[in-house]
Design a protein that fits this description.
The protein is of the alpha/beta class and 457 residues long. The chain has twelve helices and 16 strands. Strands 1, 3, 4, 6, 7, 8, 9, 10, 15 and 16 form a ten-stranded mixed sheet that branches. Strands 12-13-11-14 form a four-stranded parallel sheet, with helices on both faces. Helix 4 crosses helix 5. The protein binds adenosine-5'-diphosphate, 1,6-di-O-phosphono-beta-D-fructofuranose and magnesium ion.
């Protein structure tokens, strides 16, 4: 409170974006032949989205006080009254990188359709084949609305994708050679780190005026700052079918365990959300929460009791869970440098069987291991994700056309915003196990904490 008893207005810390120097051209959407925008259609550069919407209103700690006085904000996404590009000069490149994710094709389709139909770009949109390496190793593909008409109905990425192959100089050389002045990178955390470096190199070269935009994609939902990445909900939906199958299998067996491994290299969001939605899960194991197998209070002890009580149990394990315990032959990684894990599901199944033999020899146990890994991400986006992909793509187009660069389009507290790419590239999004969501999982599964300083296996 101020002396006069008024609560002071917090000051905004706007996460500003670099802009391209360019002509201020009236937005062509204002003269669209079919669509007549209302005065509120255009977004002012002063419109912002606040990062934090939860505040502790009680008398302050130093940190709380600072939070009340300074609020982080991002530019609100949307069409600007003036743009930096004459549509006739736009040469846009679209690239998809990293693992598959439902909705990637929809994003590409909407980038093409939005640039063409909203802004009137003709013959200036190109697809880069097979991820970042495609800039220098493949021919680019001209794209127009007719070419991409049905893409949103298909899983995967029609442009192709890859890991690795990030050769910065060759990529920016290719951008220069093709005369691209807008680059849209659709990908996960690795892709955003790459796009941030492309943006940095473009600026370093000085002579290039290229808007670099990112649209975050990852089924794992491990990209930070944004509310969630597209395709995540579709993947969770598909994951539930695997859990349902595991449940049918374990209920039909005498002392059955349905063991389901789900994607999630460093973040357990898919496992967590699928567990929450399914309600059939007895134990959910994620990378963010340690557990141990043997001894009192360990996982096997818990499962034994659960099987005794109910006759069966479902275990969901994220691929990156328990990696402290899983034996490793060598520090392995994929082409992008991401950690490559041994199969935690197969390991758990073998360990459980061995333990059962030792501790409960003669008692029957059936373990059905389900690994739907690629099935949950190779599907087309559901309705919600399709809509989300469309709006993310359009937000990215409006930002690039306005001359913003080095930004990611994403939602923050449900509102579309432009976030500095560097910030997204560095941010992680692990499951917060102190949060209510994890507490809900625990209340559904009634699994214990597994925190006793137990043996290491
Ligand atoms: N630090 C980085 N700098 C530049 N490029 C990167 C970096 N990390 C990853 N990339 C590149 O981004 C692309 C996608 O990364 P990857 O980790 O495989 O998938 P995702 O983007 O889905 O996380 C790959 O071509 C990879 O080489
Ligand atoms: O076998 P691939 O194609 O490398 O993909 C496996 C990985 O993809 C992921 O879904 C993550 O992918 P991204 O980082 O590309 O979004 C992980 O869960 C999994 O480890
Ligand atoms: Mg990734």
């Amino acid at each position: 409170m101020d002396d006069d008893g008024e609560t002071p207005m917090p000051s905004l810390e706007l996460h500003k974006l670099p802009t391209l120097a360019g002509a201020a051209i009236p937005n062509p959407i204002a003269r669209h032949p079919l669509y007549h925008p209302s005065p509120s259609f255009f977004i002012s550069p002063a419109d912002v989205v606040l990062r934090d919407i939860l505040f502790d209103a009680s008398p302050a700690s130093a940190a709380g006080e600072r939070r009340r006085r300074h609020v982080a904000a991002y530019h609100r996404a949307g069409p600007r009254r003036e743009v930096a590009f004459d549509p006739a000069t736009v040469r846009a490149a679209i690239v998809t990188c990293g693992g598959l994710c439902p909705g990637t094709n929809t994003v590409v389709r909407e980038l093409v359709v939005g640039l063409s139909e909203l802004y009137g770009v003709r013959g200036g949109v190109f697809g880069v084949r097979n991820g970042y390496r495609g800039f220098y190793s493949d021919e680019v593909v001209p794209l127009d609305p007719a070419a991409v008409e049905h893409w949103h109905k298909a899983g995967g990425t029609a442009l192709g994708t890859s890991r690795g192959g990030f050769d910065l100089a060759r990529i920016v050389d290719a951008i220069e050679r093709h005369g691209f002045n807008q680059v849209y990178a659709v990908g996960g955390d690795g892709t955003m780190r790459g796009a941030a470096r492309i943006h940095g190199e473009v600026r370093r070269r000085g002579r290039l005026a290229v808007a670099v935009a990112g649209i975050p994609k990852t089924v794992d939902n491990d990209v930070g700052v944004i509310d969630r990445s597209f395709g995540f909900h579709t993947a969770v939906e598909a994951a539930q079918q695997a859990i349902a199958a595991g449940h049918v299998e374990d209920e039909s067996a005498a002392k059955g365990v349905g063991l389901v491994k789900l994607m999630g290299r460093s973040a357990g969001h898919i496992a967590l959300h699928a567990t929450l939605s399914s309600r059939d899960v007895d134990c959910c194991l994620i990378p963010e929460e340690d557990f141990y197998l043997r001894g009192a209070g360990g996982l096997f002890d818990f499962l034994y009791r659960r099987i005794k009580d109910n006759g069966h149990a479902v275990v969901v394990v994220a691929e990156g869970a328990g990696q402290r315990l899983v034996p490793r032959t060598a520090a392995a990684g994929d082409e992008s440098g991401n950690e490559a894990f041994l199969d935690v599901g197969a390991w758990l199944k073998a360990e459980l069987r061995a333990w059962w033999e030792e501790e409960h020899a003669g008692e029957v146990l059936t373990v059905k291991y389900i690994d739907p890994t690629y099935m949950i991400r190779a599907v087309p986006a559901n309705a919600g994700d399709n809509l989300y992909c469309t709006l993310l793509a359009h937000a990215a187009i409006h930002g690039a056309m306005a001359g913003y660069t080095g930004f990611v389009s994403g939602t923050i507290n449900g509102n579309y915003a432009y976030i500095p790419m560097d910030e997204v590239a560095e941010a992680k999004n692990p499951v917060d196990t102190k949060d209510h969501k994890w507490a809900w999982v625990r209340s559904i599964t009634n699994q214990p904490d597994f925190i006793r300083a137990g043996p290491t296996s």
